[in-house]
Amino acid sequence: MIEQQYSGIRAEIVALLHAARSASARSVNALMTASYWEIGRRIFQSEQQGEERAEYGEALVSQLAVDLTRQFGRGFSKPNLWKMRAFYLAWPERQILSTLSRESAQPLYSNNFPLLPTDIQAAAAAFPLPWSSYVRLLSVKRIEARAFYEAEALRSGWSMRQLDRQIESQLYERIALSRNKAAMLEKAEKAQPNDTMTPEEAIKDPFVLEFLDLKDEYSESELEDALIQHLADFLLELGDDFAFLGRQRRLRLDDTWFRIDLIFFHRRLRCLVIIDLKVGSFGYADAGQMHLYLNYAREHWMKEGENPPVGLILCAGKGAAEARYALDNLPNKVLAAEYQTVLPNEKLIVDELERSTQQLEDRRLAAKK
């Protein structure tokens, strides 16, 4: 009887905590979205007051990106600020004013002053979906299609993954051509196994972490996390050529987030070394993703006088390990040859990868005994 009572109260508390975490994530997302909409509004209205609007807008956003990043950290790059401006234009004031008039007796404006910080919470009622969903919706150019996806996401309770899947599969266009629209909508409401997002995942959303100025220490597995640390130490022990710059560096391309496992600077080669670890066998997609990282690093992280970055893909699949340098996009063969001469031998790295993996597995098995 006591065990049954305990099981019952434990289940109730677990359900309560899950509900509280989900509610917290929704609340933070709504406040964040309202804040970003207001930032976009202020940027747009400030542009309209500039004499040369296009030039003034570019200068304004550039300066804001520098100042806000210095004060608040991540999340306020130029692309992000332009996205906030686009968000304001896609969800105009008349739509937000209409929602606020229903949700709050507080005025949105007073004597022509803009939305006050104390009113952000009231404005959040106009944005019931997560900020990630609005970012995804911005990629839908047709106003009618965007409104459809927003309405259906709210009505059916779509997760971000469901919304992304429906947009990718062109649900709006398929329904427009379908004779049985109700049946298609009913089918679209059904979630797929991978659609569900846990409260922990929602709270660890990169947008939420940026907004709250929290560090993202997430790693896909304990093994991968430990291997990354082992490899970082190993490379630093090879000599003073490798200078450690960071691990689990996040970058966003369009609406997709990526994590780069390790970033070093090689002093002799004068170039960044981007390292990506795969707990699995090597595939063509891994090479494509690495070249994406290198192109991004070349454009955004490479300093004047440096050589182009080089990538190292490490695969720690069971039964086999391999290391591959990505040198294809270097401007000339001489530079590629120099890189191959100076960088650590790939077999040396593979041996360390296998040794570290075995040590970690042995340690894990010993802990279970």
UniProtKB/TrEMBL annotation:
<dbReference type="InterPro" id="IPR041527">
    <property type="entry name" value="YhcG_N"/>
</dbReference>
<dbReference type="Pfam" id="PF06250">
    <property type="entry name" value="YhcG_C"/>
</dbReference>
<dbReference type="InterPro" id="IPR053148">
    <property type="entry name" value="PD-DEXK-like_domain"/>
</dbReference>
<feature type="domain" description="YhcG PDDEXK nuclease">
    <location>
        <begin position="201"/>
        <end position="347"/>
    </location>
</feature>
<feature type="domain" description="YhcG N-terminal">
    <location>
        <begin position="12"/>
        <end position="174"/>
    </location>
</feature>
<keyword id="KW-0614">Plasmid</keyword>
<dbReference type="InterPro" id="IPR009362">
    <property type="entry name" value="YhcG_C"/>
</dbReference>
<dbReference type="Pfam" id="PF17761">
    <property type="entry name" value="DUF1016_N"/>
</dbReference>
<dbReference type="InterPro" id="IPR011856">
    <property type="entry name" value="tRNA_endonuc-like_dom_sf"/>
</dbReference>
<dbReference type="GO" id="GO:0003676">
    <property type="term" value="F:nucleic acid binding"/>
</dbReference>
<protein>
    <recommendedName>
        <fullName>Cytoplasmic protein</fullName>
    </recommendedName>
</protein>
